[in-house]
């Protein structure tokens, strides 16, 4: 044991002596490092909530304009986001007050969607929102509590107690109905988005690629279309059918005295997942474009998003297995934009034609917008605007 310790000590000395930096680095004080760290943390949270406001503003328009397609899973929405430091993960609390000018005593409105019921009631960012119909809003889980409260109380008018610059007031908010599909915004470079059929997840990498709100509306509309069209349920059904078919082959071979180890079941299950996957994505692009148009977004130039995605993920230009290649998506959105423009000229309702049209054969990777939610990273908050 003693020899082992001496041996490790000797190795440590050699490592310390070898390959060490040779520059005389400037000395940095711990206080200066902490101060700069705080500056960067404050900038981060301000940027996050600025981006979240953009995401939620677009999402609010998409949800309310397309509520008829949400098959009974709507909820009342007022278009504001409020929070307290206690609502945040612990690592963000120490600088959240300085970054966002929020208090520890009452929930503070962080952002308000222009033209939303909250905006029409005169609520602005910085207002402290104390109670809804006399019920005090909790200091933890604020956003989730308010969304649940609205869902429980329905779309009837709400009396909101506010405080602005020390002056109390009461305003009446008249909620509107929209699709009950909250948005989670994740800070990560991956250019991706996804849905589990209920919640929509947007990564900051894909929001950065969407240079216009119309492009972002197309992304969010795409994910909402996946949910409304039941694509995940269809994929799961195809997965089960594939597994059953492959398992039947495994059993048949086993009856002849040879074990496959379930190989056919596993491979046919994978094939079931991939069945129609590319067309599901094309259909979500198609219907999602209609959702964006219904929300009032101009689709001219939206196709440039797919060129940007191709540059960010070059493999998506030439390969496709679960998603169309970006060239197909670029050309399709141009045609859909023209189709929608033609319907507008003829005063026809903006209703997508859902008749199935086979897509051309394309080889394709899992690099574009996903139907399964991406891995979630910790974010400054766990809920979106309601």
Work out the strand percent: 5-15%
Order of secondary-structure elements: HHEEHEHEEHEEEEEEHHHHHHHH
Say how many strands there are: 11
State the helical fraction.
Answer: 40-55%
Radius of gyration: 26 Å
The oligomerization state is single chain
Number of domains: 2
What is the molecular shape? globular
Straight-line distance between termini: 63 Å
Poorly predicted ranges = 237-246, 267-276, 357-386
Structure in words:
By secondary structure, the protein is an alpha+beta fold. It folds into two domains: 38-179, Pdz3 Domain; 188-345, no CATH class. It is 49% helix and 13% strand. The chain has 13 helices and eleven strands. The strands form four sheets. It has a four-stranded antiparallel β-sheet. A three-stranded mixed β-sheet has the order 9-11-10. A two-stranded antiparallel ribbon has the order 1-8. Strand 6 and strand 7 (167-173) form a beta hairpin. Helix 8 (231-255) runs antiparallel to helix 9 (263-274). It is globular, with a radius of gyration of 26 Å. The protein starts with a helix and ends in a 41-residue tail after the last helix. Residues 237-246, 267-276 and 357-386 have low confidence and may be disordered.
Keywords:
386 residues; Pdz3 Domain; 2 domains; 11 strands; 13% strand; disordered C terminus
């Amino acid at each position: 044991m003693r020899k082992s310790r001496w041996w490790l000590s000797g190795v440590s000395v050699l490592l310390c002596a070898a390959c060490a930096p040779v520059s005389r680095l400037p000395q940095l004080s711990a206080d200066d490092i902490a101060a700069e760290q705080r500056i960067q943390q404050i900038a981060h949270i301000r940027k996050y909530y600025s981006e979240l406001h953009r995401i939620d503003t677009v999402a609010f328009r998409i949800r309310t304009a397309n509520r008829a397609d949400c098959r009974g899973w709507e909820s009342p929405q007022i278009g504001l986001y409020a929070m307290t430091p206690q609502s945040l993960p612990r690592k963000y609390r120490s600088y959240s007050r300085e970054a966002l000018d929020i208090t520890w005593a009452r929930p503070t409105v962080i952002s308000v969607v222009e033209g939303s019921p909250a905006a029409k009631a005169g609520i602005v960012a910085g207002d402290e929102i104390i109670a809804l119909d006399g019920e005090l809003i909790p200091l933890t889980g604020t956003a989730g509590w308010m969304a649940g409260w609205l869902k429980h109380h329905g779309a009837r008018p709400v009396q909101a107690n506010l405080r602005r610059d020390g002056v109390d007031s009461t305003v009446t908010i008249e909620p509107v109905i929209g699709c009950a599909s909250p948005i989670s915004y994740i800070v990560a470079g991956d250019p991706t988005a996804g849905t589990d059929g209920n919640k929509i997840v947007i990564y900051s990498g894909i929001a950065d690629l969407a240079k216009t709100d119309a492009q972002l509306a197309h992304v969010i509309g795409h994910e909402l279309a996946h949910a409304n069209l039941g694509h995940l349920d269809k994929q799961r059904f195809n997965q089960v059918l594939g597994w059953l078919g492959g398992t039947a082959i495994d059993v048949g071979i086993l009856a002849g005295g040879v074990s496959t180890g379930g190989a056919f079941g596993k491979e046919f299950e994978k094939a079931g997942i991939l069945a129609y996957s590319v067309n599901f994505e094309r259909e979500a692009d198609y219907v999602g474009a209609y959702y964006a148009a219904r929300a009032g977004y101009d689709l001219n130039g939206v196709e440039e998003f797919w060129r940007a995605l191709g540059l960010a993920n070059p493999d998506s230009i030439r390969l496709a297995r679960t998603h169309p290649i970006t060239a197909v998506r670029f050309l399709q959105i141009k045609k859909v934009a023209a189709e929608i423009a033609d319907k507008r000229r003829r005063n026809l309702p903006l209703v997508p034609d859902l008749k199935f049209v086979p897509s051309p054969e394309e080889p394709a990777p899992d690099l574009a917008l996903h139907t399964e939610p991406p891995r979630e990273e910790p974010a400054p908050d766990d809920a979106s605007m309601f």
